[in-house]
Amino acid sequence: MDLEVLLSERLGAAFGAVAGEPVDPAVRRSQHADFQSGAALTLARRLDRSPREIASAVAARADLAGLAVAEVSGPGFLNLTVDDHFLARLANEAVVSTPPPVEPQTIVIDYSSPNVAKEMHVGHLRSTVIGDAAARLLEWLGHRVIRANHLGDWGTQFGMLIEQLDDRGETDQESLADLTAFYQAARVRFDSDPDFKRRAQLRVVALQAGDERTLQLWRRLVAVSEQYFLNVYDLLGVTLTSRDFTGESFYNDQLPGVVAELEAKGLVRISDGALCAFPEGFTGREGEPLPLIVRKSDGGFGYAATDLAALRYRVQQLGASRLLYVVGSPQREHFQMVYAVARAAGWLPDGVSVEHVAFGSILGPDGRALKTRAGDLIKLVDLLEEGIERATATALAKSPDLSATEAARVGRAVGIGAIKYADLSSDRMSGYIFDWDRMLALTGSTGPYLQYAYARIRSIFQRAGDAGPGKITLTEVAERELALELLGFEPVVVGVGESLDFHRLAGYLYSLAATFSTFYERCPVVGAPPELRESRLGLCDLTARTLRQGQELLGIEVLERM
Ligand code: ARG
Predict the structure, then answer these.
(1) Ligand 1, atom 5: nearest CA belongs to which residue?
(2) Interval 120-133: pLDDT, tens
(3) Burial of 323 (0-12, 13-18, 19+ CB in 10 A)
(4) Is 150 a pocket residue for ligand 1 (Cβ < 6 Å)?
(5) 179 Cα: distance to centroid of ligand 1 (angstroms)
(6) pLDDT tens digits, residue range 463-484?
(7) How many whole angstroms from its chain centre is CA 417?
(8) 1: pLDDT confidence band, cut at 50, 70 and 90?
(9) Which residue among 112, 113, 151 has the greatest number of ligand 1 atoms within 8 angstroms of its CB, and so is best to mutate?
């Protein structure tokens, strides 16, 4: 049960009666009491009464018997102290494994979406990590989640790639082992060899015309890339599989239909030879209407056309009522324009929502885009491997008796967990500075700290031997604080399901771990007399289950021992 909602309902009714109109009681957790409402202060001017007077009237009226005690404080705050027995009852009834009921929706999440024959870089890291957390959390809440890995597997650059592959001989495994080198070699030839360039351009035509041999070569390129991406996903421990690839090429057949529909609805016109939509409200520097290019002047379709087709398909064929696009902030305008055109075309009917789940970039210590010493973009795999190496070394330094396999297992969980936590715990829209020492630290708001907090509770149970969790009773302040914190899990998860602000969940888990630490310092557990011990083990158990569930929703591996 959501305690905050319950208190809000009761207080809201009393406020309503006093004010003679509906009032949001604005009940929040507080430093000064368990919960606090400041609604009387905002209401005072409108009712022309003193805030303290309103607060007293509400306190007298509110039906809080058995739930909480309300007291007026300061200029007119209402401080709520939750009843110990009621709080204990809620803690005893809390089931972390079953999510609160929601109205189930079909939600398509467009995320990760790297490009064929190109290396995944740190920009794709954020999309993959945030998208994975979104998929896990929304699925857990009971929604039907469709993972859409919008692979960049189509476009004019495939002309030169296919031509390069054909020249090298398609059986030459070597040439594809390093995809970046392969891409760069093709690029160099394209820019310097006019004959190659001409052949590459003819290849694009052959590819679009469905020439079988060209398609065969193209499929090989895509397959090698997909395998590469799947290896990265495996290393990262994200839930994307080979079934989730729905690349740009998938929408190819639908593009003429999309164009025809836009034409029929009068939403596009020719401008400089290209077929463009000019959605309302989008203008360039000089105030001129901004085009969304649906078909290029050479007759080819681009990124925008594919996105329009994908949107229409997701709503009409997949039955989605919520569309999420986890893509970096620089593509904001592109998506806003795509949504505007889709809305005008009637592809986003009432009841279907669409959100660009944007994010800022990962920065180096100098506050600029993260680069290698040589100034290149950092390859995602290199970054992941470095994190794992560092965490493995730390694990070995701490416990030299760890076997090599065990150290590698812990190192991987900690290294990857640290990278994910650093990403998810920072405000999505602002970028963050990538700093190994900070994100791998065992103290502060880090992945390792969270993993350690869980492992520590497991070790308490080891020491408790046969004693197990029992009925929770609350007497000490630190016990009450922990119980209150534990009850905050459900509202946070529900809220993040709406906002996709994962830093709220990360921050909640950090605060829960810290609250547990205080509890554990103040309240002996294993050494306490039997009944108290069982109650406190009950609190330990609920904390462990909450931390575990929270970490699973973020995609951070749980360790029994650390
Ligand atoms: N492949 C694109 C990139 O690497 C991201 C695609 C995002 N999804 C979309 N539906 N446009 O920038």
Answers:
(1) 113
(2) 888 899 999 999 99
(3) buried
(4) yes
(5) 19
(6) 999 999 999 999 999 999 999 9
(7) 14
(8) low
(9) 113
